[in-house]
Specification:
3-stranded antiparallel β-sheet, 4 helices, 91 residues, mainly alpha
């Protein structure tokens, strides 16, 4: 499910670097996740073609690669979002 939360953060079509996404996740959920786990998930999403790296804006730090959602990623997010839950849990 974490992957869909990352896709949801990218859903507005803007490009964000990994740290900004991780910070937005923490602010919205109140949960901290390790940098390594967050970047590993971004790389998995890139590998699946759901996320792509975007061009680095002039004057920006070249070490901060921005990521943006692809059309396939948007379709995957929307399919997940409207699908019925498969497990409710004990909340």
């Amino acid at each position: 499910m974490f992957r869909y939360l990352v896709l949801g953060l990218l859903r507005d079509g803007q490009a964000y670097h990994g740290y900004a996404l991780m910070k937005a996740y923490r602010e919205r959920s109140g949960v901290s996740i390790s940098t390594g786990n967050f970047y590993r998930e971004l790389q998995r999403l890139v590998g699946e073609g759901w996320v792509q790296t975007a061009a680095i804006a002039p004057g920006e730090d070249a070490r901060r690669a921005p990521y943006q959602i692809t059309e396939d990623g948007l379709a995957a997010f929307e399919a997940w979002f409207v699908s019925p839950p498969t497990h409710i849990g004990s909340y």
